[in-house]
Automatic annotation (TrEMBL):
Residue ranges of domain Aminotransferase class I/classII large in the record: 46-383
Protein name per its UniProtKB record: 8-amino-7-oxononanoate synthase
Superkingdom assignment: Bacteria
EC number(s) per entry: 2.3.1.47
Length: 395
């Protein structure tokens, strides 16, 4: 019999990266400081790889809410929501999220990944899911679990999306699946065009708001609010691990659909419920998101300033108005070398390489938060200038 463990070989591109000492992953953080810095290997680094855009993960109000929940309800739920793990706290958060997003109902999940896997219950083998090329791996896995046909179009390529919609079997189901704010490039979905095509062809539109809900839009309700198209989105998914500063996720939409997913989505039915501490922290975060818009403004202003600095140095980035700044490198090894140079300069960023990005499009992902100071942004720009020149990436 073939030993399945024999197939478990590390990818060929990992070995040279490791041997050169530029492996950019699994570096443990010893301490997270409240001012946008972390301690790694005894060194204090400016962190620009975090998804904690509003700087809430270290906020005392979230910590206090989590501690109160632990003292009252314990550290875990001891079961799935359907069996015995449901808490009044869960239902309170669900009601608040539904009202916040202008949806009839919401359902809280243990992680954002599981919130997206819930979508597998919406489609089946005869159906087609049309998805942007840059969607998150969890969304791809949801389609795989459903056994629906996955057709992907180039990022925000509405002409291609229209062509794929025209090819769909009218006797089967179809679904458009995209993100509000894309996690690798920081670009926004072309929601006006996408929603228009969804209406024209009579298909449902599902929007993953993991990165934009809490950050984008006048009220922080995400890309749909930014475009004034909240009614055009049939179903939202979101993650608490970004703007909400904790863990967990949720799905929000029509009550009939949420009730259906509560009973049919395997990632909901068979997962232990979200811990009390994370549920309480998410509720505290929602209070802050609704009442402190200046956090969004600070995070976005910091990104605009740093994006201009990096572009001015000669790096190729995107122009989207979000907190994510992709610094395109192209070559995987060169990208990892840049990551290490930045690390040595005192900056902790994120290297994004295939399959997280398309082949030949490796990049350094930089993200800003509401906590970053002008001095820290100066340090990041100076580190990129020094590292980029050493590697011949900029003049």
């Amino acid at each position: 019999m073939l030993d399945v463990f024999g197939r478990c070989q590390v990818q060929d591109d990992v070995k040279p990266v490791t041997e050169m000492g530029v492996y950019p992953y699994y570096h443990p953080v010893e301490q997270r400081l409240a001012d946008g810095e972390v301690v790694v290997g005894g060194r204090v680094l400016v962190s620009v790889g975090s998804n904690d855009y509003l700087g809430l993960s270290a906020d005392p109000r979230l910590k206090d809410a989590a501690c109160r929940a632990v003292r009252l309800l314990g550290t875990g739920t001891a079961g799935s929501r359907m069996a015995n793990g449901s808490l009044t706290l869960h239902e309170t958060l669900e009601g608040r999220l539904a009202a916040f997003l202008g949806q009839e109902s919401a359902m809280v999940t243990p992680t954002g990944f599981l919130a997206n896997l819930v979508l597998s219950a919406l489609v089946g083998p005869r159906d087609t899911v049309l998805a942007d090329q840059l969607i998150h791996a969890s969304l791809i896995d949801a389609v795989r679990l459903s056994r629906a046909r996955l057709r992907r179009y180039r990022h925000n390529d509405l002409d291609r999306l229209a062509g794929l919609l025209a090819e769909c079997d009218p006797a089967a189901g179809a679904l458009i699946l995209t993100e509000g704010m894309f996690s690798t490039t920081g670009t926004l979905c072309d929601l006006p065009g996408t929603a228009g095509l969804a209406r024209r062809h009579g298909v449902r539109l599902v929007l993953d708001g993991a990165h934009d809900i809490g950050l984008i839009g006048p009220g922080g309700r995400g890309t749909a609010e930014h475009y004034g198209l909240e009614p055009a989105v049939d179903l939202h998914t979101l993650a608490f691990s970004k703007c909400f500063g904790t863990t967990g996720g949720a799905v929000a939409g029509p009550e009939q659909i949420i009730v259906y997913l509560r009973h049919q989505a395997r990632s909901m039915v068979y997962s232990a419920a979200l811990a009390p501490s994370s549920t309480a922290a998410a509720l505290a975060a929602l209070d802050i998101i609704e009442t402190e818009p200046e956090r969004r403004r600070r995070a976005l202003a910091a990104a605009a300033r740093l994006r201009a600095d990096l572009s001015g140095l000669g790096f190729r980035t995107e122009t989207s108005p979000t907190t994510i700044i992709p610094v395109y490198v192209g070559d995987l090894l060169l990208c990892c070398r840049l990551w290490r140079e930045l690390f040595d300069e005192g900056v902790l960023a994120t290297a994004m390489v295939p399959p997280a990005v398309p082949d030949g499009q490796a990049l350094i992902r930089v993200s800003t938060t509401a906590l970053h100071t002008e001095t820290q942004l100066d340090r990041v720009a100076a580190a990129f200038a020094a590292a980029g020149r050493r590697l011949g990436l900029i003049p």
